[in-house]
Each structure stands twice: as structure tokens, then as C-alpha cells.
Amino acid sequence: MRLRWIIKKILGRRKSGLISELSTPTIHRAILRAIEVAAPEGVTGDHLDVGSGSGELLKLIAARYPVGSFACDYTDTLMKLPNQPVQTVDLNHDSLPYSNDRFMLVTCAETIEHLEHYRETIREIHRVLKPGGFVILSTPNVLNLRSRLHYLTCGFPNLFGPLAVGERDVHSPRGHINPVGLLYLVHALLEANFVDIRLNVDRYQRRSLFSFFLLYLPIYIAGRYNYRRELKKYRTITPQNDWAVRAINSRQVLLGRTLIVTARKPR
User: Fold this and answer.
1) Any bridge partners for residue 130, and if so which?
2) What are phi and psi of 196, to 5 degrees?
3) For 119-146, what is the HEC assignment?
4) 2-206+239-264 belongs to which CATH class?
5) How many Cβ atoms from other residues are within 10 Å of residue 183's Cβ?
6) Which backbone phi and psi does 156 adopt, to 5 degrees?
7) Which residue ranges make up each domain of the chain?
8) What is the per-residue pLDDT across 115-143, written as a single tens digit (0 to 9) for each?
9) Which pTM was predicted?
């Protein structure tokens, strides 16, 4: 009976690892919560989902807010919503096919880790947002404890790995080509002139709790030392990025599975 349970867990993990879309219901719920915080009065206007996949996130947002739904992805074959057009675009080479100041809300869930030039995509998202509009991005948290320990032993973060040459299944974990840590994501948003950046996670990883209690004190001590060195010697910490640097060793980042980051385009 125990052996059957172990086999089931292994097969289940393998199946989930190869699933074509990594935007799970937990991530979607976290994005909906982030929208509520960013726009407590509600959202109106048009919503663009970059990397729209099957359209599940589009459906959830449209069911809650009176928005027009727009989808773009590298293919339109993944869309499952009837009568939902998908604008196909190769974000590694092309701009978003929309005019300036077009959308009030842009979501980009589990997509930037599949892109060669995610900073260009973030600049494009800023361009197509209306002044006062906001973006919500999600990406695997490569700085949680599980990922850090995986990097220590394997040389790459969790959910990333050796890249197969010529891989075309960009929606699988094998299509994860760009591990984007919190600090670099925040830097990309700031460089694109976003403001009001907020951090959240979809959920805490319970399997990391033991590592958290065991390693938090040495991580905290080493983190404080490195913080002072970066601040005083290298002068890389500024008022703009200070909160993100401090957050690197926070409970959210050490235990969070997926980063949910919200930012607004200035009015």
C-alpha cells in the first residue's frame, strides 16, 4: 500500500511537471486578490492577458469585472474560450500588436520565464497600458528555500534545468529559459518607469518550513552582512530598490512558491 502511494506521488509529480500550462488555480486566485488590492474600486475598460494560454484567467477576470477581454500568445491553438480571438505574437522578436495607452489592466502569468527578452516585454506592457493602469506578473520564485537548495546541489533553480537544444514546447518546464529573481524583476519594472510596485506570493511551501526554521538565522546574519556591504562599499542599494533587497530574505520570498508582482503606470 505504501509502495503504491509512493508510485502515485511520483507519477503525479511527473505529470504536473509536464503540464502545458503552469498557471494553476492557486496562482489565478492570487492574481485576483492582487487586483482587488490594486483596484479596490474595481476595474473597467480593457484587459489584456499576455501569454493567455487556455483563457482561464481571462474568464475569471471577466466574470468579476466589466472589462473587454483581449488575448495574445505565441499560438492560438491553446485557447479554449469560445469566440475569444487570440492575437499571435512572438515576443522574443516582436512588439505587442496594440496601440499606446490601450489597456487598463494587463496580466502576464507564468510567461516571462519563457522569454529571451523579458525586459523588452515589460517595456511593451508599459507602453500599451493607460496612465493609471496596472500590470500583474507572476513567475516561479527562484529565491525560495527549495529553489536555493536545489541550486546548491544541482546548479540551477527549481523548475529550471538543462536546456534541450531545439526545444519547441515552450509551455512546459523545459521551456523555462529565464529564471527571473525578485530583485531583477523589480529593477526591470522600475527601469520601465512603473511605480507602486507590490509583492505577494501565491502560497507558502509547507515542505520548506523545516528548512526555514533551520536556516533562517544564518541566512538572516549573512544577509545583514551583505546588505551593509552593498550599501556602504558598493553603493548598489538606493531608496528605490532598498525594499526589494530587504525582501530577498523575507518570509514571503523564502517560503513563497510563485511571485505575484503588481505595478502601476504613472498618471
Assistant:
1) none
2) 50, 50
3) HHHHHHHHHHEEEEEEEEEEEECCCCHH
4) alpha beta
5) 15
6) -150, 155
7) 2-206+239-264
8) 999 999 999 999 999 999 999 999 999 99
9) 0.89
